[in-house]
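User: Just a sanity check before I run the rest of the batch. Below are the structure tokens for the first item. I only need the designed sequence back.
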């Protein structure tokens, strides 16, 4: 199958679909979405905890803070308009000892700076009023947080794209590019697609795709697997809504937490373990190409030299259910080993710079013929509608519309 389009979007995750939805809403651009897998939302979109994030954690004036605030409310409206199951249930962030209080203070400051008018400071006793089984000395109540199934959201976005005249292909793995008659030709397993502009939303493969299309990203994707456990049904009552620890500011991860899911049940996790395959959802998943890419990247070794102790603790928790449960018991001491069972896993596409730093903000790089989304981990799903509108505006500028 060959075809022509104004814009080809690489990646059928929620950011790619939100971008396609925003472009096709104008009605004057032909859009094709190419997804490598046989289904949409197969990776980060369909394998996260389903949280609609509030915007509490992010540095004010960052792209994350700006897009999360705008995208959160847009996500709630989208779900309401299209009948997608969701709930604005709120969450509690818990300081388990006095040493975490300064970090909790900073979270409260950031939350208010990011427009979260509903944030409330809680004493330890007030924390237990909201989550009776939690042990902590203080906390924050964040009522703007919610839950949803992002795979459902992505499916609705794809339908909207198609209703507006766009095309969404699955099983269309991009193989490379060429130039023909002044246009870019995107070569895929489904054929060649000529276009005026490309938007790279390839997630776990975004840096490789960027290089294939002539960009020179300053960071590389290093994959981290997040492994979840589930509370057994008779222990669901331990968690009313969402319970989070105070995160370590050195890392862009939020720590092991409890999440009530929109479809029922309670997830516990995730940890953050180096994955030796970009789509490696099992402990022993391995790709020679991906492992070699990590091992040959100086930025990875600089990162590892700083954080190897934390990395080893995460690996220990990965292979020891007892160690994982100990982390959960910091928040809910009543959780026992027999109360949890293995759940699913996701892989975070984390961009790591040459100096070993983990990129904390969204990163978008533009070339003459393409836009590349090179770092869009959490809260990208929450912020997807806002990100999509931002990318669509840049595309229209390039296309002269």
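Assistant: Here's the designed sequence for the first item:
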């Amino acid at each position: 199958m060959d075809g022509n389009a104004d814009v080809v979007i690489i990646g059928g995750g929620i950011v790619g679909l939100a971008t396609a939805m925003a472009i096709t809403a104008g009605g004057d651009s032909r859009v094709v979405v190419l997804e490598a897998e046989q289904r949409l939302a197969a990776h980060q979109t369909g394998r996260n905890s389903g949280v609609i994030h509030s915007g509490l954690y992010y540095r004010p004036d960052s792209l994350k803070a700006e897009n999360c605030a705008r995208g959160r409310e847009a996500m709630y409206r989208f779900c309401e308009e299209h009948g997608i199951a969701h709930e604005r249930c709120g969450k509690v962030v818990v300081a388990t000892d006095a040493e975490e209080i300064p970090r909790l203070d900073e979270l409260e400051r950031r939350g208010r700076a990011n427009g979260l008018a509903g944030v409330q400071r809680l004493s330890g006793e007030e924390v237990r009023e909201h989550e009776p089984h939690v042990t902590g000395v203080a906390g924050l109540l964040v009522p703007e947080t919610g839950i949803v199934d992002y795979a459902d959201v992505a499916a609705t976005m794809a339908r909207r794209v198609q209703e507006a005249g766009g095309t969404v292909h699955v099983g269309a793995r991009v193989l490379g590019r060429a130039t023909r008659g002044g246009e870019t030709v995107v070569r895929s397993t489904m054929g060649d697609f000529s276009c005026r502009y490309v938007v790279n939303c390839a997630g776990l493969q975004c840096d490789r795709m960027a290089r294939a299309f002539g960009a020179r990203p300053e960071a590389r994707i290093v994959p981290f697997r997040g492994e979840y456990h589930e509370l057994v049904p008779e222990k669901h009552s331990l968690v009313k809504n969402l319970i989070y620890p105070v995160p370590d500011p050195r890392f862009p991860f939020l720590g092991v937490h409890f999440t009530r899911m929109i479809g029922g049940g309670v997830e516990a996790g995730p940890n953050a373990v180096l994955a030796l395959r970009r789509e490696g959802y099992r402990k022993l998943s391995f790709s020679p190409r991906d492992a070699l890419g990590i091992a040959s990247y100086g930025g990875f070794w600089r990162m590892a030299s700083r954080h190897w102790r934390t990395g080893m603790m995460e690996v220990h928790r990965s292979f020891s259910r007892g160690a994982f449960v100990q982390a959960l018991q910091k928040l809910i001491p009543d959780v026992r080993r027999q109360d949890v069972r293995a759940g699913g896993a996701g892989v975070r596409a984390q961009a790591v710079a040459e100096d070993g730093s983990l990129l904390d903000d969204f990163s978008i790089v533009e070339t003459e013929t393409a836009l590349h989304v090179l770092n869009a981990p959490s809260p990208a799903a929450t912020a997807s509608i806002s990100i999509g509108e931002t990318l669509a505006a840049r595309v229209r500028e390039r296309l002269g519309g």
